Structure formats: structure tokens, C-alpha cells
Amino acid sequence: MQENKLKKVLNTEDVYKGLIENMAEAVWVGDENERTVYANPRFAEMLGYTLDEMIGEESYIFWDEESTEKVKYINQNHRKKGISSSYEGNLKTKSGELIPVFLNGTPLPDGGTVGIMTDMTELKKKESMYQTLIENMKEGVWVGDENERTVYANPEFCKLTGYELEELIDINPEFIWEKKTAQKVRSINEQERKHGISSIYEGIVLNKKGEEIPVIVSGSPSPEGGTIGILTDLSQIKEKEETERILNSAIKYASDAIIVFNPDGKITSWNKGAKMVFGYKEEEIIGQNLNTLFHDYDAKEMTAPESVLYNLEIDAFHNNGETIKVSATLTPIFDENGNKSDHHLIICRDITNQAKYEEELTIKYEKIKDAYNQFGILRRQNDYIFDLLELANERSDRQSLADFIVSSIIMLTKVDACVLRTFDKDTKKLELVSSFGVGQDWQGKKTAKYKDSLYEKAFTERKALKIIDVGKEPKYESKSLAKKNNLCSLMLIPLVFKDELVGTLSLYTNPNRKLEIFENEFIEKYARVIELVMSQF
After folding, report:
1. 3-state class of 346 per DSSP?
2. What's the mean pLDDT in 468-481?
3. Which of 229, 392, 489, 509 has its CA 20 to 30 A from that of 42?
4. How far apart are the first and last CA of the chain?
């Protein structure tokens, strides 16, 4: 009887049977009482049963407890009414292991069910890795649906705003913005986000205590029609800006140079501030080309922008022949109706004297470009993180991943050399898998011992070893090679995943840059991501 029922369900033409039995997805067929009529080889392989063991068994024995409740509910409310459905669940193998799957269930004409299941084990692993990364980011991450209701917010976002995740889920968090920022957010969401356009802008967050927190917002549309927002706290940057405002108040409130020029780059208007900055009298400069002032910019480049460009730092030339540095705003000129004319305006102020103050401040708090430069650094770091994870997600080969890791370290740290090794726990040795900045003779050290080495010390202490001069370090075994390659300082980072050594990163600089290698705060954090990726090698 069951054989006849199976023939009826599958329409047992050889081509259909061959297709189903060779599918990569698991296929299960049940009768009107949810008892197994058929299961393809993939389903049997996944669960560890034979077909004979499954025939006649209720489908519910193949699911964990939570999934069983979901399956029963859907069978009663959907399947019995002839409705197909898709949902996630966990299959339970014969040995009791759980396999996450995505199920497509379809009712059959005779009252039975056919289910097609896709194994989601690898996808869930990747999701877990991305979740760990996002939940440990130092930037606030918020995700909203197409109606701007909160779908997710990471711990840093909750810390920044002072709200618990439960207080934000499924509501529009407009209340976290001060009034003007809220208007800006609404406008950007309506004019840009809904049209698939990303944007970066500054705003003010009101935390739960009512305190104002300046932030820079990077907003991007999500594939589902919602929004992903990354918020970077600018509080410290704004404090630095206020300090510089006081130190440079005389310059800040001096008259600015205002210059108008036509599409050919010919100067048509020149104010007194421009004379103060550049030293030219009006009669000397009107009709001259902008290249007289800005040799690195031509008229075509300066008349190209369609919108305002702020905080351009440009080298300019004074009438006395000296080079000065100016901070400039470049913008098209619009009429009262908002139509763009054929003339442009550049507003400049001399920041030559400010340079000495900017050099004393941390680069991240640079004058004029503080917020944007800082965010740019964070974005570049995040780009490398996401690119590395994306490469891992694409299941690239080990060599491609290793080469990317080394090249990204070189770009992020500007060190002179980098060596990546993997640890073989069976042989207790470290294998060189990728390098940069070392000669071919370094391949003689392709395999390095672990016992009684600096590698063992770094792993035992669970921290990066920082050696100013490897030539004076007793345990360093490649002194002659280091000298030959003009390498002096070393940062040796153990790569540890789940308390096991998976590899090491060795970063080198030449003798003229001894201490620079130890000043990059991000690299050890980036190493944590590398550990996750290398654990998959």
C-alpha cells in the first residue's frame, strides 16, 4: 500500500525519481497523518537513519522539541488548509545532534505533505561570527525595518543612548535625537535612504538622561528596504575642537578670503580678506586664473562639484612667493530659486599658523577634518575587517586568506615586514604561510620550532611580545636574517582561538622606526578577527 502511495505522490517516472534522489536538499514525504512515506538519500544521510527505519514513523520524531511544536502548529493551521509555508527549525539526528535547516513545506492533493529542507549549519556558523564582530564593535550599530522601527541594536548603541534593547525593539527611535537632528534624519531617510542612497552626517543624540552626545552617523539602506546606521561618539573630538577654537580664536574670527570665479577659472570677484590671505590687490588679481593661487588645482577641477565641499586643505601661494596652507569651502553659486549658476565661490582662511597646533594634537583630532578623518580611519579599519570576513565567507583557499591578512596588516600598520605562521599542534611547529618585506632567504625559516621559543612565551602570556631590538633578544633565533633584511623591532602576536594557538603574526620595522610598531592600538584588536578566520584553516 505504501509503495502505491509513493508512486502516486512522486509520479514515479525515472527522471523525477532520479532528480529527487540526487538532490542536495533533503526531501521528506508524509501521509495525511504525518507518517513517513518516503525520504530521499540526503534526508537519510543527514539524520543517520535508513529509509526502512523511517518508513511509517511520524515526522515529529525527526525534530527537536521547539521545532516539533512549530511543525504541529503549521500542520494544523496551514497544511491542513492547503497552504504552503517556509520556516526555520532544527532536525534531530538518530544520535541526538541538532541540524539547523530551512524548510519549504507543501500540501499534497491526497492530504499528505512534502517537505524540502536545506542544511543551514555553515550559514549559522557565519552568522555567529558576524554577530560576535558587531556586538563587540566600539561604534553603535542600529538596524531598522522599512518603517524605521528597530530590528536590532548592538550593546554599544544601547550604551551610547542609555536604553535597553527591549526598550527599542519594534519602535521608531526618533526620541533619541534632539529636535534639529530628528528633522535631518527624517529628511535624509525620505530623500536618500528610501532611494537606496547611503549618507554620512553629524547629529546630536539625546541619551535616556537627556544628555546631548555629538555623533557622526553613517547610514546605509539594507537589502530588505530598511536602514543600517553606524554611530560614532564625537564627544572627545568636540572637546578637542573647543580647545582649538580657544587657542585659535584670533585666526578663526579674522576676515576670510572670498573669491568668485567663472567656468574658465578666471577670478571675477576679490575681497579684502583675500588680500590679507594672499597678498594681492584687487586690480592685480581680477581676470587672473586660479592657478595663480592654487597650482595643484585647475579650473575644470574646481568647477566640477555640484554640491558644497567643506574643509578642503590646500597648499596655496602668497604674492611674496611663500607657500601657505588654507582651509577652503568650495561651492557652486545658486540663485534665489535654487538654480545653479555658471560661477563658483571659494572661501579660504589661512591656517598656516594653526599647523603647529595641529601637529601637537593627535591625528584623529585634526583641525577642520577631525570628525571625517577619524571616521575615515574607523571605516578603513572596518572595511578590512568586513573584507576579510567576506573572503572567509566565500570559502577562499587558505593561501588567499593568508595573503590578504598579511597585505591588510601592511596597509593598516605601515610596518616594513610581516610574517604569518600557522601552528601545527601535532608537530608542535609553526609553518610560514605568507609574508611581506622579507627576502627569499627567509624561506629557510619556513618551519619554526615552538618549544622554548618566543612563540611559546607569547602564547603562555596571552599577549603580544614587543621587542625593541631583536638583535639583543636571547631567544630570537634569526638575528642574522633580521640584520640582512634591515629589521630591528618586533611585535609578535599570538593568535589564539578557544584557548588554543592557531598561529602567530610577526610585525617588523627597520632601526629608524623602532617604536612606531608599538603605537597602533587597532592591530591587536584586528588580530582577534584574524584568529576567528584562521580557526577555519
Report:
1. strand
2. 90
3. 392
4. 51
What pTM was computed for the model?
0.34
For 191, the enclosing helix (H) or strand (E) is helix 179-191
Q: Is 43 exposed, middle or buried (0-12, 13-18, 19+ CB in 10 A)?
A: buried
Record the cell numbers describing residue 341, joined without a space. Answer: 549658476
Handedness of CA 148, 150, 154, 159 (dihedral sign): positive
CB 263 within 8 A of CB 299: yes
Residue with C-alpha cell 534526508?
43
Biggest distance spanned by C-alpha atoms of the chain: 105
* Backbone phi and psi for residue 43, each to the nearest 5 degrees, phi listed first: -65, -45
Domains along the chain with CATH numbers:
2-119 (3.30.450.20), 126-233 (3.30.450.20), 254-349 (3.30.450.20), 396-534 (3.30.450.40)
- On the 0-12 / 13-18 / 19+ scale of CB atoms within 10 A, 521 is exposed
- Beta strands 447-449; 429-436: pairing state: antiparallel
C-alpha cell at 189: 531617510
Q: What are phi and psi of 103, to 5 degrees?
A: -110, 130
More confident site: 369 or 515: 515
* 397 or 129, which is more confident: 397
484 Cβ contact partners less than 8 Å away, ≥ 6 residues apart: 439, 441
Q: Please name every residue paired with 495 in a beta bridge, in sequence order, or none if there are none.
A: 503
φ and ψ at 329, to 5 degrees?
-115, 125
At position 237, the amino acid (one-letter code) is I
